[in-house]
Amino acid sequence: MMKRTHTCNALRKNDVGKSVTLIGWVDTLRDHGGIQFVDLRDRTGLTQVVFDPQHAALKEDLHHLRHESVIEISGTVSARGEAETNSKLPTGEIEVSAESLIIHNTSETPPFPLDDEKTDKVNEDLRLHYRYLDLRRPSMYNNLFVRSKASKATRDFLDEQEFLEIETPCLFKSTPEGAREFLVPSRLNPGKFYALAQSPQQYKQMLMVAGVERYYQLARCFRDEDLRADRQPEFTQIDLEMSFIDREDMYELIEGLLKRIWKDCLNVDIPTPFPRMSFEDAMNQYGVDKPDTRFDLKIEDFSDCFKKSGFKVFQGTIASGGVVKAFNAKGLSDATQGEMRELENTAKSLGAKGLAFIRITEEGEWKSPILKFFSEEEKAELQERLNIENGDLVFFGAAEWDRTCAILGRIRLEAAQLLKKRGRLSIPDDQYNFLWVIEFPLMLFDEEEGRYMATHHPFTSPVPEDIELLDSDPKAVRGQHYDCVLNGMEIGGGSIRIHQPALQKKVFEDILKIPVDIVEERFGYMLKSFKYGAPPHGGIALGLDRIVSILTNRPYIRDVIAFPKTQRGQDLMNDAPSTATPAQLRALHIEVNDLED
Amino acid sequence: MMKRTHTCNALRKNDVGKSVTLIGWVDTLRDHGGIQFVDLRDRTGLTQVVFDPQHAALKEDLHHLRHESVIEISGTVSARGEAETNSKLPTGEIEVSAESLIIHNTSETPPFPLDDEKTDKVNEDLRLHYRYLDLRRPSMYNNLFVRSKASKATRDFLDEQEFLEIETPCLFKSTPEGAREFLVPSRLNPGKFYALAQSPQQYKQMLMVAGVERYYQLARCFRDEDLRADRQPEFTQIDLEMSFIDREDMYELIEGLLKRIWKDCLNVDIPTPFPRMSFEDAMNQYGVDKPDTRFDLKIEDFSDCFKKSGFKVFQGTIASGGVVKAFNAKGLSDATQGEMRELENTAKSLGAKGLAFIRITEEGEWKSPILKFFSEEEKAELQERLNIENGDLVFFGAAEWDRTCAILGRIRLEAAQLLKKRGRLSIPDDQYNFLWVIEFPLMLFDEEEGRYMATHHPFTSPVPEDIELLDSDPKAVRGQHYDCVLNGMEIGGGSIRIHQPALQKKVFEDILKIPVDIVEERFGYMLKSFKYGAPPHGGIALGLDRIVSILTNRPYIRDVIAFPKTQRGQDLMNDAPSTATPAQLRALHIEVNDLED
């Protein structure tokens, strides 16, 4: 059995003259006047190997060499001439003159080129089908490498903070609220089902009741979602829970954790503490609860300004309880008709009737169909508060508060894209704007259901000074929830939990109006556990997939998951899911419905 | 919000005079002449707190104190008098005189005492129902603590060895061979099912094809087994795979890993390298493929001796291809009638017709119903090879080779138990006999199926020098499989895999006789992947639950799993599994069969 003496990224000029054995894949294969040059690749890098066919030991095998074959060579390290030096490769000053060759496995011609740039453009389904080949690309390997590093950094940090890694079950109880669950029929309990845990939430709270004090887990979680662009049926969260802490402790802990991850993975020092923003400010200024603060374009409220406006659309909206907001897409006055139509479509898809705007030409002329309705005072206030200059483009929203925020929040992001395209807004790849968003409302009234729903989940503790509002004005109650936001993406969220059994019961039954028998069935054991000395506790879950995709600067989490599923939940490599045998279904006491239904 | 200044295991004599704040659970509560003494407990230990009810700030709350309530106290550290010192507690030289008390949560009277010794005897179902209370016991917390430490040691070691931690999917393709799988209906692919991965076997081999070279994962695995005494539907393995290695590399790696785990968890240095034993020797000498070598009682083969014996049972067995074996249960001649009956029942349950034996009295008299058939030469050979002395008890087995081994292997273990009970065999708790069992047959002929079945799995590579026997004498082919055995328990197993597509196809189709279409459906993608330059590779999986149960000296793996299921697969705490709603089932296109079937 072979033993390599070096990896393919190890040899340097001072190794010249050494006898070495390398093993790896044939990355490239070139013939220069009868001499064969191979770039031999392993996970660490490339080394050039030279085969002189005059060498008796090589003659026979040499013409079997193919791209992506696995070979082992022994030979001597030699220096390359100055002209032959490859300054792009760490091993570029040397090459290995092969004296023996073993072909461990040959390769058929791969279905697509394994080249970092070209392969990104290959049909993704094809790449998923041959995932084991796609992963051979150095950039894909690097995604896995960084993910492993981020996991290790997380574990090292939390271990130093005296957290215990504890595994909680995946086979959990079905709690059919919230996201859709995967069900697992139980053979030993016919007619009954497990649900694959959507998160370890309930178990980790039980660990706090058990006195564990500090728990963490890189937890596999499962959600049977209609797969949106960037969701996966199974994903991983950095899940943790602590007793005897408050929100400040949690901010400090997570800032330390993320600092460590960024340091270990990218050698980047991220500044802490992170800025904090209330939910209300986030919505008002950025139109979203996960603001991207890497650029400005802040939204301003003009409801006071237009309260008595001659523009009846604005005036009427405000009179009926709505708001008027605007932001200045700085320097975007050259937006094309097509781009404006796109923006308007976005606004309409969010429930706007249209998208009012003012275009300010390079010459300073204001152009807008609605301008004629505005008073000079209104224009002056817009000018001043939005800092309007030549070449700007101002967008308006006028509707209920939350809808107005949402519309302008999305238009703001799309406007930023248009500015980036024009080179007027540039965001460095390595800019990381972390942010805590806090003071969320504890619950929101759901018009469809006709009752309050927990904004995050029903275990979140109210802010203490708001508890007395629970009966009188539930929607004013703020929760002790916190979201961690990075560059406009939510990378985690958590809360201080309710630990008092009476308060938890009140939230379930009196506020959220969950029927008593359902509360008992789904959460009865938690309420019971709280009666035996539950400590004050809180926790958080951070999306590991998302964090790694940001660390590796990849757009999709499937790029940082070794074997992702497609949007239809399929593993194209091995063709899962597949049909079950009749015997399997019989044993589980289930049958498949008529699929024509 | 409170901040504790110290944990409950931190204060010592040199802290006397300090003002401190502690938080924890009321472990014990005693009244000595109006003064209340509380042992305050957190996960680290206990500190005695003294409440003087004269203290105005305490008066009101003090009579609300209950066992297991969560309280926070501030006070001053004082020295205990010599008579009051508790030498069993690290904090036994001090106590804290409370000046303030906050009760964070009260507790109802727990359903069982939270006491390490007594609670072990409480009905296990009750303890599982209140798992969050059972876990409060220091010994149970310690199990979780050691598990966390063992996981960390594993990750640290494998990280140093340049392994990448890579997560593979739980939602896998159904491959209905081997152990029974859990099925998961796919809503997005009606009529199709995922299987919960029984192990990452196929995915990790794909990672090797992908060029990852060194992969590990603490992998959650799922098996829908009829739960035997010590199995769980989900369990965790230390799962790893490497390219470009042979068996020796794997032995060295795993010995290093286990050495590190034992060092980090127990501060015990285990000697390496581990002894190795062939499958054949293990069966011949210990009657089992996972020998407990902490005691001797070795089995010897007497087939040659009895080939022409006057004892027709032995002679006939040998003549028809069977074997005669025996071992000396040293010093067990005082086995009772009842014990002998038990042993005979064991033998019969394994297919023996009876259990022949010779009892050697303390006076040296040999007693046995079969003695009269033995020649003097036969007795002399027994005497010599089994080192028979006064007070011994010799057991015989006579049947086919594998059955004889299995019977005497079990009798050997039961005899050892009887010797332990009598104090004639003592095995220290901290004796760790590691062992590699190697050279397993690659496959075994399955009489029922009428074909060869892979001894471990169909991906195991044959020993190179045996490959030529694949067609002519398959049962003689040894596999490159290795089992890691500790104290008679298999703690892990693995193999060097087949990486040549033609050989893998041959094993599937020609040797194991799996129909071509089934091979294509289940393993087609693996065979295909091997055609694109699969490297030589191998791996192993170690049972983390079992390892931790040995480290913590607990008999069952459920003791080292935070939330285990019962033997019927139920979580008694939260009542999983449970019924699904009709809407859930409709969405999944399945229905539950008539359960009367």
UniProtKB/TrEMBL annotation, chains A, B:
Catalysis performed (reactions): tRNA(Asx) + L-aspartate + ATP = L-aspartyl-tRNA(Asx) + AMP + diphosphate
Region Aspartate: start-end pairs: 201-204
Record site: Important for tRNA non-discrimination: H32
Residues holding ATP: R223, D224, E225, Q232, E490, G543, L544, D545, R546
EC number assigned by the record: 6.1.1.23
A Pfam entry, by short name: tRNA_anti-codon
Localization per record: Cytoplasm
Keyword Manganese appears in the UniProt entry: no
CDD domains the UniProt entry points to: AspRS_core, EcAspRS_like_N
Key words of the record: Aminoacyl-tRNA synthetase, ATP-binding, Cytoplasm, Ligase, Nucleotide-binding, Protein biosynthesis
Keyword Signal: no
Any one GO cellular component localisation term in the record: cytoplasm
Domain Aminoacyl-transfer RNA synthetases class-II family profile: 146-564
Record: residues binding L-aspartate: E177, R223, H456, R497
Top-level taxon of the source organism: Bacteria
InterPro entries per record: Aa-tRNA-synt_II (IPR004364), aa-tRNA-synth_II (IPR006195), aa-tRNA-synth_II/BPL/LPL (IPR045864), Asp-tRNA-ligase_1 (IPR004524), Asp-tRNA-ligase_1_N (IPR047089), Asp/Asn-tRNA-synth_IIb (IPR002312), AspRS_core (IPR047090), GAD-like_sf (IPR004115)
GO annotation terms (biological process): aspartyl-tRNA aminoacylation
Known role: Aspartyl-tRNA synthetase with relaxed tRNA specificity since it is able to aspartylate not only its cognate tRNA(Asp) but also tRNA(Asn). Reaction proceeds in two steps: L-aspartate is first activated by ATP to form Asp-AMP and then transferred to the acceptor end of tRNA(Asp/Asn).
Quaternary organization: Homodimer.
HAMAP family per the UniProt record, alphabetical: Asp_tRNA_synth_type1
NCBIfam families reported in the protein's UniProt record: aspS_bact, PRK00476.1
Family designation: Belongs to the class-II aminoacyl-tRNA synthetase family. Type 1 subfamily.
Protein name: Aspartate--tRNA(Asp/Asn) ligase
Native organism taxonomy: Bacteria, Pseudomonadati, Verrucomicrobiota, Opitutia, Puniceicoccales
